[in-house]
């Protein structure tokens, strides 16, 4: 075999190998982010074959390039506190936030963390309505119907499982002007995982939204409301605002539903200026009472705002 023939044989082998690898990638959703680095010292780097004119069939938005982030100080050599903190909001009464919420907000602001549990800056009676969405129980559509009828903006903090399993609902949230917040990919306790794992959880969720819905937001909610100062710093360094709450009740247990009247009385009794309200979309009580909650709040002089209007 002469040199020229050998050259073409090698070229042919390399070409076929390349094509085979490409076909395998395409058969496994070529537009999904692909991990090319996993050394646990930098964040997962995501790459995709960019198609500038490609749009999401769900939202009709242009597909966004994947987010790439390198974790600063992955081993926490600065010694940022890692003690577990469980967000405690207390029960607001008489239009005044509980001292637990006041203390939490003072802590965030004094430490310079990009985090909020209620609005201390607005001079008006504003409210921010938020929902946690870990799974679908058949009530989110009704919630969206009420929000559309009442012209109220909301933020839905969704896990990746919910985003994947309920594409029409997620698209509707986006198309109707609501925020789809990041609630992580797998809902781990952020007080128990390292900085790299935290970043990967957030990136996986965000990049799925980008590649399938042409959407991204910069609001994050900690699973279970558990965090550390180390976690707050990491999330803030990624450009996210951590959103907690100052008004809520135990509505997440669908086996303990008490009816719309109970939800109405409980939520409205805990309202206060600047409140960030946390509700769970799986609750039949919330779906039943939401319209009345909104009407009561407005009759009491409150105005519903989007988190995008909050002045950080």
The Cα radius of gyration reads 23 Å
What's the rounded overall pLDDT mean?
86
CATH fold title of the largest domain = TIM Barrel
Strand content: 5-15%
SSE-based structural type:
alpha/beta
* DSSP E strands, number: 12
CATH superfamily of the largest domain: Glycoside hydrolase/deacetylase
From the spread of the alpha carbons, the general shape counts as globular
Residues in helices, as a percent range:
25-40%
In sequence order, what are the helices and strands, one letter per element?
HEEEHEEHEHHEHEEHEHEHE
**Under the CATH scheme, which architecture of the largest domain would be assigned?**
Alpha-Beta Barrel
Query: Structurally, how many domains make up the residues?
Result: 2
CATH class of the largest domain: Alpha Beta
Outline the structure in words:
The protein has 312 residues and is an alpha/beta fold. It has two domains: 1-30; 35-309, TIM Barrel (Alpha-Beta Barrel), CATH 3.20.20.370. It contains nine helices and twelve strands. The protein has helices at residues 3-27, 99-111, 140-150, 160-165, 167-175, 195-213, 229-237, 260-269, 284-299, and strands spanning 34-35, 46-47, 85-86, 115-116, 126-133, 154-158, 179-182, 219-220, 226-227, 241-243, 275-280, 303-305. The strands form four sheets. Strands 5, 6, 7, 11 and 12 form a five-stranded parallel β-sheet that branches. Helix 3 (140-150) packs parallel to helix 9 (284-299).
